[in-house]
Amino acid sequence: YYLFFILLKEHCDCIEINLGCPQRHARLGLFGAYLLEREHWPKVFAILQALKKSIKIPIACKIRLLPTFEETLEFTEQLSLNGCSLLTIHGRHLISDHKKRRRYGPADLVSIGKIKEKMKIPVITNGNVRSYRDIIKNLEFTKCDGIMIAESILANPSIFSFEDITPKKLKFVAHEYLTLAEEFPPPTFEYTRAHIRAMLRKKGAIKQMNVVFKGSLDEDSLKKKI
């Protein structure tokens, strides 16, 4: 990964270390949120220090909340001291009694806001966004410097617009996405299918998914069915 960062430094304005991924492959490979355990902190700080010495562009980190607020604050302060210039906090824990807590349920914006008060570097809030109004509300509540959105933007790529999404507008957005996917094709068509599936779910057209995807082998054929 270190070599990867070095190769990218001439092509990026910032490099982010993702310490928030909760997925199984992250656990098996010991990366993502599984580096948040205290025993791995020295490794994380060593990576930051090495990058800070080797590249001139800013280094950002994305984390999840640790088991306690005190641990989270201690870790974030150490990230800053070791070279992190911008911090994104996903307001959920890696481990919880509720199996779906890693992804579902409300994010702890209170803790994010408290950490923002203590930090001297910019802090980005992540979680609890379903609409543009949520963006404004979360920024006002946490006083963070910005907001990061993940899955919600897959279902509604126009979430940063001021208007509420409607089925008619979502159809227009889906067509626009497919046109862009033809011009700038993703690695495989499965990427396109996944995005359109998320948009159709938002539109409430779940029953029509099989009809839309049956026989659709490229962006143009999908566009004709939506």
Key features?
5 strands; single chain; five-stranded parallel beta sheet; alpha/beta; 12% strand; 226 residues
Distance between the termini: 40 Å
What is the average per-residue confidence, as pLDDT, rounded to a whole number? Answer: 86
Order of helices and strands: HEHHEHEHEHEHHHHH
Could you give the count of β-strands? 5
* Helix share, percent: 40-55%
User: Main sheet?
Assistant: 5 strands, parallel
Spatial arrangement of strands, main beta sheet: 1-2-3-4-5
Could you characterize the architecture of this molecule?
This protein has 226 residues and is α/β, with parallel strands linked by helices. The protein has eleven helices and five strands, in the order H-E-H-H-E-H-E-H-E-H-E-H-H-H-H-H. It has a five-stranded parallel beta sheet with strand order 1-2-3-4-5, with helices on one face. Helix 8 runs antiparallel to helix 9. The mean pLDDT is 86.
Concise description?
The protein is of the alpha/beta class and 226 residues long. 49% of the residues lie in helices and 12% in strands.
Protein topology:
Blueprint: H1 2-8, E1 15-19, H2 24-29, H3 41-54, E2 59-65, H4 69-81, E3 86-93, H5 109-118, E4 123-126, H6 132-142, E5 146-148, H7 151-155, H8 167-183, H9 189-203, H10 209-213, H11 219-225
Parallel strand pairs: 1-2, 2-3, 3-4, 4-5
